[in-house]
Every structure is written in structure tokens, then in C-alpha cells.
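Submission sheet (multi-component)
Chains listed below:
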Amino acid sequence: MSNPLPTPSVGSLNSVVASASVGIVTPQIIHFREPLLLACGRTLQNYQLVYETYGVLNVNHSNAVLICHALSGHHHAAGFHSATDKRPGWWDAYIGPGKPIDTNKFFVVSLNNIGGCHGSTGPTSINPETGKVWGPDFPKLRVRDWVATQARLADALGVNTWAAVIGGSLGGMQAMRWALEYPARVRHCVVIASALKLSAQNIAFNETARQAIMSDPNFKEGRYLELNTLPRDGLAVARMIGHITYLSDFAMGEKFGRDLRKGSFDLGSDAPVEFQIESYLRHQGDTFANSFDANSYLLITKALDYFDLAREYGDDAVAAFKLAQAKFLVISFTTDWRFAPERSHEIVNALIGANKAVTYAEIESQFGHDAFLLPDQRYQQVFARYLNGVSESCV
Amino acid sequence: MRIDLNEIQHWIKQDSCILDLGCGDGTLLKFLIDTKQVKGYGLEIDSEQINLCIDKGLNVIEQNLDRGLGNFADNSFDTVLMTQALQTLHFPHKVLEEMLRVGKECIVTFPNFGHWKARYYLATRGRMPVSDLLPYEWYNTPNIHFCTFNDFEVLCREMKIKVIHREVVNEVSGQFLKDVMPNLFGETAIYHLSK
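Outcome: structure written.
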């Protein structure tokens, strides 16, 4: 029997966090001319995907890993776009040389899903049939449509089987759908802070966000681009609502408390008071409103709401997972109330019921749903050690 | 490998389905996978132990046994194992009941608090026993529900649990005496149980 590996010290883990970046990366665009029949029954005649890759595909094409992004994510998951780029990709803490998704070992593929607004075909693209922007006429999408386009991207990149399909939140839903739709093409499925389906509370938050967008006078029934305007205020409020639910009460209290950005409570003072949290949320909302498309937001939140892994399997998640051939790693975070640990328990229990290989870790974190994006020692350990095993099987 | 783990393998069938409660670093589960080609899961709450299980490529689930096994179906495993964890539980009898519901058979191992060293320590010093086998002080011990072999026998009778096999193993000393007077000279008990 093998002896357990020595435990990495805290020091070495911190150095993992600070270790090298994948450096400067250039997004690539790939066009697909073969029509895609969507779950809604409509057909996308052609489309493009923007994606990035990190690391090198090995000779046997067995070390490829797919990253599936969440609601507001995109293809730029790691590294920088230029030497002056201030912020790295959205999952840079976890993708790179020596990091859990180790680009010295894996060929990592990260794309922007269709229906998004960062370069892949979506509501801001031109509808070839009309010559105008798609806007609200862009077909409604389901998670399975994204998975279908990701499979075509895999074909184009020469990846027959993914060593792992990895995703957090909505990305985890894509990873699970992969395991059911293309069982032979997924060796490991990593599902982080996700769920078999959204709860009523989750749908309620999404609907409130959508109503904020649609009630903006500049929304113009989704035809704002044709009319040269943007529903910025509505989109900003939508993002603020989302942002509140991604943080924990504790995290917000720690970061902002009741600190004031300006004004004062002094008697006799008429200065308008602004709390730090108000300013922060407005800033988040405004930044998002300038970089995200409102129709994409509506479309993607709808895809989230409709997702129900087991619906077509008689509402039986055990029956659904029986189709999977992948091994699973499931991770949740203790203070995540948007995708609570209980949702991950449902995934794990269904996998056990289906006799599938599964490892589950519940990470103690104070940062709510956002924890899946943030550096955390234990999360990194679990993730890195699991993927180390995956890389050893990449022959 | 710990001596109780070595004994357990004789009661595990080839290709059977195993649930290991409090699986630690996964040594036993890995051994049973390698030698008996079993399939199974380990439950553990200690993060460092979970890491070591992941290194071994095991199916390890972070789950607190004190919250029960409600997520496992009746008779869904051939054998449910629990080695040296019984005495750490808040409600050992309830977990035992759950084990017998989920597994067709169960194997439980635990340290004997009736061992002569513990008795001698308490009798002569008037203080809670601390030994090489049980190296904790009363205030920091994870072992909150100690029992003797005789206590466990009584519990099995009360719960109408069938004892298929019982074995006493000693790591340190008393290899002969343990068979004569197990409750006084036995260090570790291994029980093979069924409904």
C-alpha cells in the first residue's frame, strides 16, 4: 500500500496562489457553418465562438480540459490580454502553471457561449436573414445548446474526450449536461457550487433582475441597439440584485459594514449620507451595464431557470446519472445561499444512487456563492489534488 | 496497516459494495479495492484526511456521521464499515441502527475501555486514563462515548443485532490473555453484525 503523500505546507500553497500566470493570451474565433438545431426547435444557420486556450494539447489529445462559464463569465478565464491589462481572466486564481487547473499538465479550453455578448454569436450579432441586430429575436437557448456547440468546438480542436469538463454555478450545470449528453467524451466532471435545478427563490431573484431590465424605458422591448440606446439603469439594478445574492451577509459586513463613503450623521448636518455598500453596488452595476448586453442577460437567466437535469429522465436524477460514465468531483461552500450545499448534496446523493464515482467536499468559506471564484486554501487543495489524479490518467 | 483493518478483509466479499464510515486517510478502502475489487464510498469530515483519500483516487464524501445516513437507501451496500469511530459519535446507537438499515452486514471496530490498563489507571490515580492507545486528555479527546466489550454486547442484545463474528485483536501485548479474558485484556474489538 502506498504511503500518503506529504502534506503541502501553508507556505507552498501560498506560493501556488502567487505562482506564474499563463501570461498574455489572444482570443481566437471559430466559425461554424453547419446549422445547429436548438432545443427550442429553431435553427441557428451559422455561428461563431470566441475562445482561449492555455497549455499544450498532448500527442494523444488526452489532456484537454473544458471550462464552462457562469452567468456573467466569458472566454477570458486566465492570463492577460495585453501587458497593460490591469486584471487577469475571471478564474486566474485556479488556472495557470502550478495552479489547480495546471497548464503545465492540461490543455485548457475556455469559450464564450452562444447567446453571450463577448464575441460569440448572440443577441448583439447580426441576424444574417435580416441584416439587422438579432436583439430580442435571438433564439431562446437551453444549457444543452451550449453543450452542443462546445462539442463542435471539441471536434474542431481535435479533442475526442475531455480529461475533465469543469464549471461553477451555471457552468456546473453545463458540465453535468455534458456527462449525460456525451457520456463517452467526459472522463471527469467537476461541478462547483451548482445545482440539479434552480430553487423557486433562485428563479425569483432572476425574475426580479429581468423585470428591472424590462422596465427600463430605454429597453424598448429589447430593440434598444437598433434605436441607438441602452437600458443601462435596468441592467445595473439587475446586476446589483445578483451581486447581493452572490455575497454572504458576513462578507458584506466585513468588507463594508456601515462605513460611510460621504456625508455624516452629525446633528445639524444636512449632508447626504452614502454608505460604502451603496457606492460599491452602484459601481458594480454601472461597470456591468457598460460591458454586458441586456438581451444576453435575459436569455442566460432564462436558460438557468429552465435547467432541470432530470426533467427528461422522469424527474429522477438517479436515472439521469446512470447514463454518465464520468467520475465526479462536487464542491460546495458553506455560506453559499444562492447555490447552497444542500443543492450539492442532491447531486452527490443522486450520483451515489446511480453507483457513480464521486468525491464531495464542502468548503468552509465566508464568501457566499462568490467563493467559487476566490482563492481559498482548502478549495485549492481539493481541486489541485483531484486534478492531479486526472492528469496522471492522461496517457 | 492497523491490526483491526487487517482482520476485516476476511469478512469482505470479492466485488462487493462497501460504505466506510469515518474512512480516515482511506487506507482500508484502498486496500479492499486493490485486493477484493470492491466498489464503494468513504465518508469523512476531517479535511486533511479527505485530501489523502483524494490522493488515493477514492470516492470520499464529506459528511458528518452524527447527521445520520438518511441520504443512503435501505440495503444499498453489502457491508457498511466503521473502524475506530463509534466512540467519537454523539449517538452511537443511532448510527449503528442506520448502518444496519443501509448495509446488509456491518463491521464495527472500537477500543476497549475495560482494558486492564484503563482500569488500573483510573483505580490507582483516580484520573481519566491516558495511554499509548488512548493518548488524549478528557477535555480534548474526540472519544466521547467509550464502552467496554461487555457494554457493546449488551447494546447488541438490546437492539436485537445479530453478531456474526466477534474478534479481539491486540497491537501491544496480551496475545494469549485476550482470548481468555477479552474484556480485561483485549485492546480492540471487531464485530461483524447483521440485522
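Remark: The CA atoms of residues 262 and 274 of chain A lie 5 Å apart.
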